[in-house]
Structure formats: C-alpha cells, structure tokens
Design goal:
Two copies of one chain form a homodimer.
Chain A (H helix, E strand, L loop, with lengths): L1 E2 L11 H11 L11 H21 L7 E3 L3 H12 L5 E5 L4 H14 L2 E5 L9 H7 L6 E5 L11 H10 L3 E5 L11 H4 L3 E5 L11 E5 L37 H16 L2 H20 L5 E4 L16 E6 L4 H12 L1 E2 L8 H7 L7 E4 L6 H16 L1
Parallel strand pairs in A: 1-11, 3-4, 3-5, 5-6, 6-7
Antiparallel strand pairs in A: 2-8, 7-8, 9-10, 10-12
Protein name (chains A, B): Cysteine desulfurase
Pfam families (chains A, B): Aminotran_5 (PF00266)
InterPro entries (chains A, B): Aminotrans_V_dom, Cys_dSase-rel_unknwn_funct, PyrdxlP-dep_Trfase, PyrdxlP-dep_Trfase_major, PyrdxlP-dep_Trfase_small
Chain lengths: 386, 386
C-alpha cells in the first residue's frame, strides 16, 4: 500500500518507536505509584518524554508539559481550563472540530462569545480580521498552527502578538505542525501548545498533550488519582499533576520519546518538514495543471522559499467527483490510502466551497518516497483525464 | 524482580498482547478517518475490542462501550455526564480519588450534595447506611466493585437494587475488579461500568473506558473530531461517538483486545480471579499470624467459599513502621516491588486508621507464582521479627 494519509496518523513508525513500546511493555510499572524499578522506570521514561517535548516546542519547563491521550483532549482541557463563563474567545475558520466544538459548547452552555476570523480563497488566515476581532478583554485566541485541510501554515507568532496586545492568551493547536514546523513557545510568545503524538512526531496513538508557559493558569479537567497528595479533597495544583489525573500511558510515551529521538537523530524538525514538503511539492507539481484537478491551499507560499511555508498536505478535487469516489478509486486502482470528506473542519470547507464535495487529502511523511508520489501523480491524472 | 504491584498496573503482559501492539503499530491507520486498509484495520481492531469488553461486562450493546485512556477519565466523563447542578449523589468511603475528586469538584462548584456510606473495621461497606443515604431523588450511586486498598469485593448487585429502588443510577468503578470478579451489567442491574485496560485485563497503559446500559444518558465530556457528522456544531450524540472525541488509541486497544482474548483462552474471569486470590491467600496465610503484622480487609469472606470474595490484594503493615519503609526494605532486600502509602483512597485510610502510616499493598497477577509468594512471606517475616 502507498500510504498518503499521514496527516490522520503516521501509519509507518520508526522501528525504534516500536522497540521502545515493546521494551516498556515488558518493564514498566505505574509511574509515581509504587516502589521499585518498574515504577521508577516508568517515571524515568515519562520524564524523558516531557523533556523532549519541552525541547521540541521551546517550553521553558518540562514540568509544564502535561500529557493527554490526544490533542483533542488536550484542547478540551486547556480551553475549558482557561475560558470562563461570559468570556470572549477569538478563533478562526481554519480550525478543526477539536477546537470548534469545545468553544461551541462553551458558547451554548456558558455564555462565551466566540468570533471566527475568516480566510481568503487560498485558505490563508485573514490577519486583519483577526486583529479587529481581538478586542481588549478577549480571554484567548485559539488558532491552529497549520490547517489539516489545506496544509497552510499559520504565522502563530503574529497571532500571539495580536493576542497579547489585547491582553489575551494565545493557545495553539499544533496537531498538524509539531515535528514539521518550527515552534518555539518562548520566542513566538505562545501561551499553550497542544500536540498529538501519533502524527508527525511518529509516536504511538494514545499520546499527546499540552505544553503550557509557566505563569499561565489552566484549571484541571480530569481530576482523580495522582499518586501524590492523596488526602487533598480537590486535584493538587502542582505541575504537571494538575492536568494529569489517572495512570499515564507509559507504554505509549516510551514510544513517543523514541519518536522524538528519531526526529532529533535525523536532522530535526527542519529536515522532517523539508522532506514532507518536498514530497508534497512533487505531488502538487505533478497534478496542478491536470485538467479538472483543483488543488487547494496556499501554494504561492512556496515561492517565498521558506522551508516551513507548508506541511506535507496536498488537498484536491477532481472535476465534480465526490471526494470519496476519488479516494476509493485511488485505493481500488492503485492501493493508495488517502482521506476524503470533511476532515472535521466544517468552516474551512464552507470557506473553500467544498461542503458537499469534500476534499481528497494526500499527506506525506518522512517515509514517503518520490516513487510513491509518482504513482499517485499517475493515478490522479488517469482519474482526471481518463 | 518479584513484581507484586499488579493492582497498580500489571507489569508483565502476555506475549500475545505485546505482539498485537507491535502488529497494530505496523499496520493501523486512523479509525473512521480515511479510505483504505489501514483505516479499516483500525476500525476492525477497535470494534473487536468493543465486543470483547461488552462480553466481559455483560453490556448488551458493543456500541455502548466507549473507550478512554484510563478509568479515571471514564469516571470523570460519566460522573460529569450524568450528575447535574444541585443533584444528590451517594458514594462510599471505599472509593479512589478518581471517584471522590470528580464528586468533590461538583460539590464545590455546582452545588451537588455528596454523601459517603461508611465501612466496618474490616473495610466492608455498610449497606444499611448506604440504603439510608440513598433517598428518593438521588441521581446516582457511585461505588467501587472492589477496594484498591483492601481487596474487598463489593456486592454491586445489592447496591444497584438500593439505587434503583430510589430511582438512582448505579455507576460502578471496576478498575480493580474487571477481569477478576464476575460482572454482568444486565444481570446485576449496573447502569455504567468504568474499567481500565492495564490492570487485570492485561492490556497496555492508555486503555480503558465506560460501558453504558442502553437508555442511560451520558452527556459528552471531551468534544471534537469524530470522523462523522463533521458539520454538526456540537458533538454528535450517537454511540459510542458521543463519548469518543479525537483519535482513539488503536495501538493500545489492539493490545487490550489481545488481553481479553488471553483471558478467554485461559479459563476466563473465574480462572483469573481464582489464581490471583489463591496467591493472595497463600501470602495472607503466611503472614497473618506473624507478630507485629496487621493485615487489613475482609479475609473472613474467604470462609464463605466464594471464588470472587476478594481480589488479589494483601494490604498490611508491620508494627508501627511507615509503609514506605517496609516497601523500600522489600525492594532493597528481596527485589520485591510493592506499593506503600495512601493509594489515592483517603477515606479508606481514615476508616482504617492508617492515614499517617499508609499501607503496604502486595497484589498478585495471573503470572504470580507460589515461589514468589513464599519469598515475600519470608521477607515480611524477617522485617517483622528481625
């Protein structure tokens, strides 16, 4: 199979990640919940993972990296832990439902006002509109670092400046960006970065979390056992315990730590981003001029020559064909896995006019080869031209 | 190492569990989020796991098994999804902080009244007090199926009868019981059972969930992407989607399914429970009469001859020694891993008078051998008698 659905999950993991999970499953106890090498081994693995995530995201304190099973839960935790009844929040039409739905619920149930900055025809965030919407008193700006539909990268440092000028926090959904696009919370002024482990970080499913700048207050979401301060009636508020009730996924985090090591040993985020983008660019250039093929997103950004201008996503449609029909044809005819449909980003589709058709998303990874891309190009040409 | 901290996490997993995770990490896409064998493989593995959990717990519908990363999150989800502002909830002093703290928070923030039924000197739940506390109009009774401190098993069917007589729901924390003690939601009248995968079910960390009887309404906790109904502003309410926002831990659930297969192939819950209890009984009988050793819990229950009278926990103290001191001595002198301290169950310790000393918990698994138990007996004797 040619797997081009890496923006959903990187199906192929480095062998070192698998080996780390296997090792952990044979040796880890429960971190912070026992005496002995098993429990201590778990604590050590988890701490290494925390330090590596902090390093990756430029978070000044490893203890301010709190793990969660995925970025969705991290976003629920952070959004509900920051935004109070009646607050104002600004977000964008680029967002995934993991941002939109927590905010929609707060709007429906707690009187939170939510404004959405729009985008242009290429799916580029309208910074001027964002700037107008972020009025003084806004509690938070919640923004994706890269669209999961178009692969456009957002200038989160600019968003943070706008947020901070109005006294708002800047919360970033880095699900599509972490591991591909340079992120430095301290330098870019990001207050919270939520990430997932199973995409470009090449870790196992069931891993992810939130990195929070020291000084930013996030109320607990899940509460319960922590292995410390058992007699406190409420969740202890030390970091990272406050956001980590219950047994952590030590087995998965061992794999995530290995994924982060793999990235570091192979040139880091810059090399990862460059490879995925070069594969996506090859695909784009092979299909952009095929009659009937529409490619979405900010491809002119590549002309700026920045390696981190885009992620490894190519979003397209073929004539008026339903996106699912095209994905099925790619699978049935060429054994190419892609993702069709709405990608859990309804406002993005509304902005692009693809609500009914959906979009066929092809997304690359570190393991994607030029040969695979060329097969995909041939397949799309054949579907389009017949 | 002699690992006797299985009530925290079963460190040793069946090889089939490890193999299943390895297989999944090389082949699974993102369930419900793509076209192709990867995504379909993930959906298939997750569905198998749902069916096996439903079978294990007597839940009439596999779609009413919703996965979560651990039982803590499942309990947060269920408790917050069932209990509304001003409701009355009855729970017990046997509970873990994963039950107590979500309820304490609701009490502090939403005016929920929470009453705790007590226990006797053996840690046995006071059913008469529970019955008095569950007045008509009570929203839910939340109860553990087995104490994580003493290993006492609770008669959840009797609790359910009391709950239902007052019109209340019966929510069970089966973290310590699932896989060891027979649970049948339909037969026992349990409305919700929360479970974890990484203890007696022998799955990986990062797995667990809630089984909910059809007809019982649980509002969503985490909301976000679901792969279906992307254009709905709020979380879709179909099962199990309503309780499963974000990418599931497919890799871990493949392992959990293998753990459940392993249990089925080795005699089922009855055989598992019997082995763990027989090992715990051997330990109990070897140390109960050692001068200075106090063993907690309802050991007379064994006289009733029921295989499921207790879990594989032996909770003890040695003279006035701090429990951590004893655990450390067991590790340093005999390489035996145990858990000291408060076990995230503050009210249980208050009831047993072990708030300061804590308790040394030794807990067995399917892989525990008589030889290991005999080493532990010798070690405890030596620590006690010197």
């Amino acid at each position: 199979m040619i797997y081009l659905d890496n923006a959903a999950t990187t199906m192929r993991k480095p062998q070192a990640v698998i080996d780390a999970v296997v090792g952990a499953m044979g040796s880890l106890g429960n971190a912070g919940r026992g005496a002995g090498t098993g429990a201590m081994g778990a604590a050590r693995v988890i701490h290494e993972c925390r330090e590596r995530v902090a390093g990756l995201l430029g978070c000044p304190s490893a203890d301010h990296v709190a793990f969660a099973p995925n970025s969705t839960e991290a976003l629920n935790c952070v959004i509900n832990g920051i935004v109070g009844a009646g607050d104002r929040v600004v977000t964008t039409v680029l967002e995934h439902n993991s941002v939109l739905r927590p905010l929609n619920r707060l709007a429906a149930e707690r009187g939170v006002s939510v404004a959405h900055a729009g985008c242009d025809a290429l799916g580029r965030l309208d910074m001027d509109e964002l700037s107008r919407l972020v009025v003084p008193g806004t509690r938070a700006v919640v923004v994706t670092a890269a669209s999961n539909v178009t692969g456009n990268v957002v200038d989160v440092a600019a968003v943070a400046r706008i947020a901070h000028a109005a006294g708002a926090l800047c919360v970033v959904d880095a699900s599509q960006a972490a591991g591909l696009v340079p992120i430095d919370m301290a330098e870019q002024g990001l207050d919270v970065v939520c990430f997932t482990g199973h995409k470009a970080l090449m870790g196992p499913q069931g891993t992810g979390g939130a990195a929070v700048m020291p000084g930013v207050d996030v109320a607990p979401w899940n509460v319960g056992g922590t292995g410390v301060h058992s007699f406190d009636e409420q969740q202890p508020l030390g970091w990272p315990t406050r956001l980590e009730a219950g047994t952590l996924n030590g087995h998965g985090l061992a794999g995530l730590a290995a994924g982060l090591r793999f990235i570091a040993e192979n040139g880091g985020v810059a090399a990862m981003g460059e490879h995925e983008l070069s594969m996506a660019r090859r695909l784009y250039e092979g299909v952009a001029d095929v009659p009937g093929v529409t490619v979405y997103g900010d491809w002119p950004a590549l002309e700026l020559g920045e390696a981190s201008a885009r992620t490894g996503v190519v979003a397209l449609n073929v004539s008026g064909l339903d996106s699912a029909e095209v994905s099925d044809a790619l699978m049935d005819g060429w054994d190419i896995a892609t993702r069709p449909g709405a990608h859990c980003a309804p406002l993005m589709h509304r902005a692009l006019g693809t609500e009914r058709q959906g979009i066929v998303r092809l997304s690359t990874s570190w393991f994607t080869t030029p040969e695979e891309i060329d097969v995909a190009i041939g397949a799309i040409r054949e579907i389009a031209v017949g």
